[in-house]
Design goal:
It contains 19 helices and no strands. It has 368 residues and is mostly helical.
Length: 368
């Protein structure tokens, strides 16, 4: 916990003292080093290390044809293990960390004003839902970062390449196929239509009804729906760990505050550029997962594809909200909630043993 907090503080300070791309790059180099050199930091780290050496002695053909080696059809991750055998698991994690933070750099540098790089880094490093948990769930976090590339491609109307990336990533983590349902969002443009008011009314009414639906209406079918995107034997596993994440984030005041942020973001969308409208929409989508998370914590894994944009959304809200007292209060409130969740997360029994103390690969008995 302390190491993660220190890295977050350093990342923020670097961007404050150098509010430019050099400061952002220096900040992300520190973050990348932290993630690249981690050892046994995260609940799933040991499982991924074991998996790497389970496929190490097999051929690529074996990986594609053996169900156990291909992890129930998600064989592309095993294939990546095969390709990175010469540099070992540690080398693989280093390359993975560099790639993922390069993606984060691209999206922050493109959409965030330089003077707010520090705020993006604050939310990126201290949002445990994506940063800390992402360090543990390596496959899905890799897919989430790839989805951020898809967002950039779709903003340039490169639909074919976007679909190809999504389909390939579904062979890394089956849940990624669900992101195909997000693609129509890129064709919504509130500014170009005369039905913006009906659209907003429908959006808000649907949100309020959906948020208050009785559990019995949808709970009976939701597990069956999720099984399409996850292998059967993973449901209990994800349920166990996502319950820990939810325990760290559920508070009454936090829920009230999140409602305020939802409607403020909705208010800002018509004022935003087309690119930023899309990012705001993805951020708002995470709210629609919340009613399901209450009784099916597994849904939280799908919400993370939207939560990842938090590091970009808050600087953008500052850009479009001209009433300074409002945006200062909202931003300060979200920062306080993020810090509270951060400290709560590391003390949750589900995460405590594997996250509280940070270890580096230099503590390992040998290069693995």
């Amino acid at each position: 916990m302390i190491a993660n907090l220190i890295v977050g503080i350093i990342a923020v300070l670097l961007c404050l003292f150098a509010p430019n791309k050099k400061g952002l790059i220096a900040s992300l180099i520190v973050v990348t080093a932290f993630l690249a050199l981690r050892y046994e930091w995260g609940n799933d780290y040991g499982n991924y290390l074991k998996w790497f050496y389970e496929v190490k002695d097999y051929s690529l053909l074996d990986i594609f044809t053996n169900e156990e080696l291909s992890y129930h059809g998600e064989f592309l991750w095993s294939a990546l293990y095969f390709l990175f055998r010469p540099i070992g698991f540690f080398g693989f994690v280093i390359v993975l960390s560099v790639f993922e933070n390069w993606v984060v750099y691209r999206i922050i540098s493109k959409h965030v004003d330089k003077k707010f790089y520090w705020l993006s880094m604050f939310f990126y490093v201290l949002t445990t839902e994506t940063f800390a948990v992402g360090a543990s769930m390596m496959r899905q976090y890799f897919c989430i970062c790839c989805f951020m590339i898809v967002v950039e491609l779709m903003l340039d109307r490169k639909l074919v390449w976007s679909i190809i990336i999504i389909l390939l990533c579904s062979l890394v983590h089956r849940s990624n196929i669900f992101t195909l349902a997000f693609l129509p969002i890129f064709y919504i443009n509130i500014k170009s239509t005369k039905i913006s008011l009906p659209f907003y009314l429908a959006f808000v009414v649907f949100f309020l009804i959906w948020y208050n639906l009785p559990t019995s209406i949808i709970s009976s079918n939701i597990i069956g729906f999720l099984s399409v995107f996850l292998s059967d034997d993973m449901s209990d596993y994800y349920l166990h760990y996502t319950e820990g994440t939810l325990a760290a984030t559920n508070t009454g005041l936090g829920q009230i505050f999140s409602f305020i942020v939802f409607f403020v973001t909705l208010y800002v969308i018509p004022k935003a550029s087309k690119e930023h409208q899309t990012i705001f929409f993805f951020f708002l989508l995470s709210y629609f997962f919340t009613p399901l998370i209450r009784f099916v914590p597994l849904i939280h894994r799908y919400a993370l594809y939207c939560v990842m944009f938090t590091c970009v959304v808050w600087p953008l809200l500052i850009k479009y909200i001209k009433t300074k007292p409002v945006i200062i209060a909202l931003t300060a409130g979200q920062m306080i909630i993020t810090l509270r969740t951060f400290f709560h997360f590391f003390h949750e029994p589900v995460w405590f043993d594997r996250f509280m103390i940070y270890h580096t690969i230099f503590e390992a008995p040998n290069w693995m």
